[in-house]
Amino acid sequence: MTEKIIYDFGSSNGDDIPYYLLKAEKVVAVEANPSLAREIEKRFSSEVSQGKLMIENCVLTVNHSLKTVPFYIHKTSHVLSQFPKPLQHSQEYNEVLLPAKNVVEIIKKHGNPYYIKI
């Protein structure tokens, strides 16, 4: 029997992860914001150590040649953090360089999806 893997692209603070863990043997949380990725890792440390939850802290890109890209973290609201560069109010963001990965690259690493939330 094939292992069920759920991908959560844009995991935010991980609120959907408990449901996904009930529905699959493995969940792959993909979150660009480093503080949110750390929050997920801390919140679900048991599932991470058991290999039930994998966390990819990266920016999703279509360009396979990029290794890092700038990501813009909003100073007061994580939901406003973004890639690409903000066109307005850029002073409200901090720019950080993050790993860049392609969706196909992530799926090849972790396995074929049972379900993908984007």
List keywords for this structure.
globular, 118 residues, three-stranded mixed sheet, four-stranded parallel sheet, alpha/beta
End-to-end distance? 26 Å
Count of beta strands: 7
**Derived structural class:** alpha/beta
The largest β sheet comes out as: 4 strands, parallel
Element order: H for helix, E for strand: EHEHHEEEEHE
Cα-atom radius of gyration? 15 Å
pLDDT < 50 stretches: none
Q: Which overall shape is indicated by the principal axes computed on the Cα atoms?
A: globular
What features would you describe in this structure?
The structure is a single chain. The chain is an alpha/beta fold and 118 residues long. The chain is built from four helices and seven strands; from the N terminus they run βαβααββββαβ. A four-stranded parallel β-sheet has the order 3-2-1-7. The longest helix is centred in the first third of the chain and has 10 residues, at 34-43. The radius of gyration is 15 Å and the shape is globular.
Q: Would you kindly provide a brief summary of this structure?
A:
By secondary structure, the protein is of the alpha/beta class.
Note the topology.
Elements: E1 5-9, H1 17-23, E2 26-30, H2 34-43, H3 45-49, E3 53-56, E4 59-60, E5 68-74, E6 93-101, H4 103-110, E7 115-117
Parallel strand pairs: 1-2, 1-7, 2-3, 4-6
Antiparallel strand pairs: 5-6
